[in-house]
Amino acid sequence: MISTRAVTTCRTLAAPNTTSTLLKACNATVVGFRSASVSPQQQQWTSRRGFTTTPTRNIKEFFPQTETRDIRETPPAWEHPIYAKDDMLKVQIAHRETRDWADKIALLAVKESELIISVLRTGLDIASGYRHASAKELAKLDPLTARQKYGMTERKYLIRNIFLESVAGVPGMVAGMMRHLHSMRRMKRDNGWMETLLEESYNERMHLLTFLKMAEPGWFMRLMVLGAQGVFFNAFFAAYILSPRICHRFVGYLEEEAVITYTREIEDIDNGTLPNWGKMQAPEIAVKYWNMPEGSRTMRDLLLYVRADEAKHREVNHTLGNLDQKNDPNPYASTYKDVNKPHPTKGIEHLQSTGWERKDVI
Ligand SMILES: [Fe+2]
Ligand SMILES: [Fe+2]
């Protein structure tokens, strides 16, 4: 992985296109953001795949693979399922309507009424300069000024994605850990939930590592991530003790938001407002992890994979939120008596945007 830190960074991603004072502060501190605006020929992300025009003294490897005498490679713990492009293109923004008080609590937690999430969201919006409500208001009155003031750039999206993904890897790990401990403590089977939950957190971390190949956060972002993780881990841990079902529903609603975010990014590439991403190739870590086929390795392709993953998390968590937490087997780690009937799988061929109902899968 070749980083064009320092010199090229300031010319590109850290370009002075920010409008808010807070984001200017962020610009001043997040100095490590690396270039994304190079030509397709220049744009290569690993030392093996490509090259950079940056002088050698300015090149730095960002979490390079450790070279040892005997080990050739350390493959991922969970192989990513193969996604067909047609299936990824079918992913839609969706919302599962609340049906009971537990759903309302979960949605409330996502929609600003829950204190911890509000702090996270506010921190995220401050860090990324993203103010959807204000942008919508201004867009009604003066669309051009709204675009200039609140329009998202590659840099703002990268900040948002890195922050989002650093938090998104927490719930699966906490839930998996809790079920692991519960199984041992109560001397009962877990019914296969743990694997799916840990795999989800692994997948979210791969999203983070992929975006980190494009930009290296400075101390301000690292501080935000540290704070958010400390608060969110403990809050989710406590919440999962009280009600795992609400927690899975909450994650389902959170993933609905993630699908919206990545859909916007894809649309912005398509409408030409993210010119650098429009001509970028995906980093090698992503090509390997998602098994991206030759000819479909652009930044847009990458975002299709990430969005499809988020849609899968949305489905999985809404489904888990529909189940008996103590007794039901995990539908995603099960084999079915009638294999011809559509049922939950690890892939996205039968994606259910609002989850599977219990009566259809158990
Ligand atoms: Fe993610
Ligand atoms: Fe997710």
Automatic annotation (TrEMBL):
EC code: 1.-.-.-
Protein residues bound to Fe cation 1: 165, 204, 207, 310
GO cellular component: mitochondrial inner membrane; respiratory chain complex
Cofactor: how and how many bound: Binds 2 iron ions per subunit.
GO biological process per UniProt: alternative respiration
Skewed-composition ranges (Basic and acidic residues): 338-349
Chief location category: mitochondrion
Subcellular location: Mitochondrion inner membrane
Cofactor(s) needed for function: Fe cation
Keywords of this entry: Electron transport, Iron, Membrane, Metal-binding, Mitochondrion, Mitochondrion inner membrane, Oxidoreductase, Respiratory chain, Transit peptide, Transmembrane, Transmembrane helix, Transport
Entry membrane topology: Multi-pass membrane protein
Domain of life where this protein originates: Eukaryota
Region annotated Disordered, chain positions: 320-354
Bilayer-crossing regions: 157-178, 219-242
Residues that bind Fe cation 2: 204, 255, 310, 313
MF GO annotations: alternative oxidase activity; metal ion binding
Keyword Magnesium applies: no
Record's signal peptide: none
Protein function: Catalyzes cyanide-resistant oxygen consumption. May increase respiration when the cytochrome respiratory pathway is restricted, or in response to low temperatures.
Family per record: Belongs to the alternative oxidase family.
Protein name: Alternative oxidase
Organism this protein belongs to: Pseudovirgaria hyperparasitica
